[in-house]
Design goal:
The structure is a single chain. The chain is of the alpha+beta class. It has a domain of 53 residues. The chain contains 3 helices and 3 strands; from the N terminus they run E-H-H-E-E-H. The radius of gyration is 22 Å and the shape is globular.
Length: 93
């Protein structure tokens, strides 16, 4: 049995530390990425995820305090999970 060595097609870039220009600067190498799924979620998921009632979600949406729903069928609406999670992150900040 022969051993096969796999090598990556692209070499990863080396990370050089960033030198601060003054004492108050903090070097940052990698930015935090929050990539949320863009799948549609119904009102049941939204109420469970946020802990708010249907009436509150619809009222906040009408007032512009919550992400807008999208129409996914003739009698169906949903919210993008990415929008709801991003909204919740903004509320916690």
């Amino acid at each position: 049995m022969s051993s096969i060595m796999l090598t990556p097609a692209v070499k990863p870039a080396s990370i050089n530390p960033v030198k601060p220009t003054d004492r108050n600067t903090i070097p940052v190498q990698i930015a935090e990425c929050k990539c949320y799924p863009r799948r549609p979620q119904g009102i049941k998921w939204v109420t469970e995820f946020t802990g708010k009632t249907k009436q509150t979600i619809y009222r906040w949406e009408r007032e512009g305090r919550f992400p807008k729903r999208i129409k996914i069928g003739p009698n169906s609406v949903a919210w993008l999970e990415s929008d709801v999670r991003a909204w919740l992150d903004g509320c916690a900040a």
